[in-house]
Every structure is written in structure tokens, then in C-alpha cells.
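User: Hey, my collaborator sent me this sequence without any context and asked if I could get a structure. I don't really work with proteins. Can you help?
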Amino acid sequence: MKQITTYTGKKVLVLGLAMSGFNAAKLLQRLGAQVTVSDVKPLAENQEAQELQAAGLTVVTGEQTPDLLDAGYDVIIKNPGIPYDVPIIQRAQKMNIPVTGEMELASEVNQAELVAVTGSNGKTTTTTMIQKMLDKDRSVGHARYAGNIGVPASKVAQEVTADDTLVVEISSFMLVATTTFHPHIAVITNIFSNHLDYHKTRASYVAAKMKITVNQTADDYFVINFDNPEWRELSKQSHAQVVPFSRQNLTQDGAYEQDGVLYFKGEAIMPASEVKVPGDHNVENALAAIAVAKIKGVSTAAIQAVLRTFGGVRHRTQFVLEAAGRQYYNDSKATDMEATEMALKGFKAPVVLLAGGLDRGYTFEKMIPAFKDHVKAIVLFGQTAKLLAQTAKEAGIQTIEMTENVETAVPLAYHLSAPGDIVLLSPANASWDQYPNFEVRGDRFIKAVEHLTGKQEEA
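Assistant: No problem. I've predicted the 3D structure and written it out in C-alpha cell form, which is a compact way to encode the shape of the chain:
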């Protein structure tokens, strides 16, 4: 860990706990800051707050009102989920108090070479592929992952050394709070229209994503998907060396697929069909990872070994088990239409789809082609069930069932399926109308499948 004095003696307010805030607070204390933690969850129910209080930090629980700032703070580290338009942040900005995030803090103390991955979809899978490739057959140091993948960057940054590589998954929420964040290799998997309730406009969302490369120089690398004209144009904003990837063979300057084979700058890597995780979107993720690995000099054999054995990340087109001729997949992380479309396109067998969730004001007409081509029957739940049912009817799906939740959807899906079919949870919506997060929703799906089949989830 770099020994910095930036926060020594400074009064720092950490807004919001969870894993990122908890670890940021502990790091700040180690750096000599006077730390106050504010979290909306009551102290009696808040284990993290209790632990920080016992460690000597000031803890304030309850509503985060603007008068919290009356104590006078030099810096605010906010949870990524707290938007900038809440009153306390607006007041902080008027008072010229710097507002930053846990990822920025982590990058300030990080000694390892930094690789950062963002995108609307595919971030976690790509991050994991890259980490595995960079760690494969490594003789010095290790490759670690952290960030939005579920491992706090501020914790891992204290542990890695200059011999290591830190691969971070970074969301738009995290990126918008960065100022000096500077990865040696930055990756954008794709950019669609996500989180507009947070960013307000697509232009703001895209600008947040592009902050991943804003501090890069000609000594760095910017790996970006070239399969969309907008993304190709965005690449021109970077001062780094652009290394493109394309599943549509639109460039051969980086990683690309041609006639079913994955290449890097003319070198054949492996057939696309040998990538273990299903779907064209995972071929794109593999190409992004290949580009990073080749920049770092990883051998083709090591890349092949990872892509032929890596079975996917939990909740992301995750193979659960096979029973009675049916394959069950958990894609609970598909919280938008694009992710579900990609998942459906990854299967050649008929799909019985489980979908639905939080109503964010979207309609689903754009899903009609994917429904027509891939969905045999659909089981719907949550706030968007009726909207999705209308879309399914327009797509010509004959079998449409409505049910209470994911747990009750599983036995219905079984009865609507036949041997050889895919039973896929890919909701196309956030989970918050019924579940705390997509992980809980996916876990409930897995438990329901295990209960139905009498088999255990495959490792």
C-alpha cells in the first residue's frame, strides 16, 4: 500500500456503509483521518456501524440530512448508490466540499498495476476472465479482482504490491465519483442506455463511462468494443493506445472473430465454439479479455485454458444443473432488456423464459425479435409482468403464464418445458420490487430448481 498523507488529520464523512463504505472507513482511519460514518440503517441493526464505532470512529445513523455537514468536513466519501441530487450532496457541492468515492480512494493507495473494466453489460464476466488470464502461469506476483464485482477495492488495494495486477470492475456510479483514477489498461465492453434514473440523460451516462480513460496517456491502453459506430467514435476521445475488439470482424487491429475463430492481430487464438460460457455476448467478453491478456504478454495456451474451462460467474448466464433433459440457467443479473436479449441469443434450443421485476417506466417492444426467435413459453412475475405479457403476445408466444414470484415460476416453467429445452431466469428488470438485489433473486431461483429436481447446483 502506498503511504499517503492526503487524509492525515482531515475530517472525512463516509456516507453509506455496506462493504465499500465499511472498508473505506477503515482505510481512512489507517491513513490518519478523523472519520465520521453516516448510514441510514439503525445502529441496533447495523453490524458494520457497531464494529466501526467500537474501533473508535464516530457513527451517525438515521436520515442523512444536510445539517450533518454543520460539523465541518474536508472530504466526503459517498456510497456509489447515493445520487448527486440528494440534498446533502447538493449542499456539500455548494460548500465546495470534495465528494468522491471508495474506488478513487482505493486507487490513491494502490501499488499494483491497474486494469479497469466498465460497460453496460459483461463487466463481471470480462473482469473475471481477465483476472484468470493474467494470473495463469504467472511467475511473479498475482492478479486480483475487486470493485463492483463484490470485493471492496479499498480492502484489496491495501493488500496488493507492485508485483501484482489489480483488475477492477467499475460501474458508472463509481466512475462519476472519480477524479484522478488512472488505469494502465481500461476496458469498455459496450454502452447501452442504463441507469437513466440516476444519470438523468444518456449523455451523462456515457460521459460517466468515458471517465475510465480520461486520465490515460499514450503509455496506456484503451480496449473498446468496435461493433457499434458510437463506440468507435468514442474511442477517439482517449489519449491512450486504442486496442479494439470486434465480434463482427470490423477491425483486425486488436481482437476479433472471423469465420468462427477468435484472433488477435492475425494470430489465431481458438474457435469461438470452444468458449465455455454460452452466447455471442460472452464471445465479445472473451475478445475483450484476449486483448488485455495479449497486451500483457499472456501466452495463447494460457488464454485457451481459461476460456475452455471458465463456466461463468454466478447469476450471469450461470449453468445451474440438468435434470429430466432440461438445462437450468440463472441469469438474474440481467436487469435490463439488452442483457436478456443477449442471453436468449446464446441458446439454440427452445427457451422457457422466466422474466419480470421492477417497473422503471420502460416498455418492451424491442424484445419482440428475440422473443420470436428463441422463446417457446414465458413465465412472468413482478411489477412488469403485464407489460411483458403484452410484448410476448405481440411476439406470437402462445404460452404465457403469470405467477407470484421466481420461486413459484420454477415449477410452472418445468411443466411448460420438454426434454432438450432451456429453462432460463433472465428477468430483463431490476429485482427491487420483490427482492433486495439480483443475487437474492438468483439464489431463490437456484433453491427452487434444487427443490424441484432433487439435485444440487453444479460447482
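In plain terms: The mean pLDDT is 96. You can pass these C-alpha cells on to your collaborator as they are.
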